[in-house]
Specification:
The chain has helices at residues 3-15, 25-39, 47-60, 67-76, 81-95, 97-113, 131-143, 145-154, 160-175, 182-196, 200-213, 217-241. It is an all-alpha fold and 246 residues long.
């Protein structure tokens, strides 16, 4: 199938023919054919994974206006409201709470318009008493116990609270939640960090973390490819440079 025909087909299937609305027909054609003709068909990720990664890139880059269209697309591709919500939640430690709240507000509008029952089921698996210990356990599982213990031991007294927040908040409150497995959460984390730009040390750490939990270099490249239309080539190329050879 040629790129033009494929783009037209995917434009209808993925976006109900509504991607890039507006008066600039030439831009619409370029954008639709790149996103729907090139990017959508690229790589080994499932359609649901591709849709969730696109939501991650849009959320991390604070692109709120079109977000509803992409949430509807994710639902059309088979993502459940819970998977969509958990994807947005997972971005919070990396991009900030209020940015995620903006994305959740857009998701809520979509869910209400589609008569999806709210609130969604609670996915927390930790309590106030267990969030630190369970979060630390996830940290050690992903990065290695020796690495995490050494990092915590090396932190000066004035930064001990940051290490505690990493374990209890970042990993305890989010990584331990239901619906998304550890591999998908790490993939979302990597894409969120890379979409921010200027966070290459953290991107490298989480590229290695992805490999440690079972994602492959190809999956990471494929995920960044799905981010590319929304974050641009400089950030995408910087992200790819952070992915080690297996």
């Amino acid at each position: 199938m040629d790129r033009k025909t494929l783009a037209e087909q995917n434009h209808q299937t993925w976006y109900r023919g509504q991607a890039f609305p507006g008066a600039y027909a030439e831009f619409q054609q370029i954008a639709q054919r790149f996103l729907c003709g090139d990017i959508t068909a690229q790589g080994c990720l499932s359609d649901v994974q591709k849709a969730l990664i696109r939501l991650t890139a849009l959320t991390a880059s604070q692109t709120w206006k079109p977000l509803a269209r992409y949430i509807i697309s994710a639902l059309d591709m088979g993502a459940t409201p819970e998977r969509i919500t958990e994807t947005l939640y997972q971005c919070a430690p990396y991009i900030g709470l209020e940015k995620v709240q903006c994305a959740l507000d857009e998701a809520d509008k979509v869910f209400q318009s589609m008569k999806i029952h709210m609130p969604l089921p609670n996915q927390a698996t930790v309590t106030e008493e267990t969030r630190f210990t369970k979060g630390l356990a996830v940290q050690r599982e992903i990065f290695g116990a020796d690495t995490i213990d050494a990092m915590r031991a090396a932190a000066p007294a004035e930064l001990q609270h940051i290490q505690a927040y990493l374990s209890a908040y970042c990993f305890g409150d989010f990584y331990t939640r239901g619906i998304l497995d550890l591999k998908m959460r790490e993939l979302i984390t990597f894409c969120a960090i890379c979409s921010l730009g200027g966070c290459e040390p953290q991107a490298k750490a989480h590229a290695n973390a992805n490999l440690s939990v079972g994602n492959t270099r190809q999956q990471l490249i494929d995920a960044i490819t799905q981010c590319l239309p929304f974050i641009g080539f400089p950030r995408a190329l910087n992200a790819i440079a952070c992915i080690p050879n297996e």
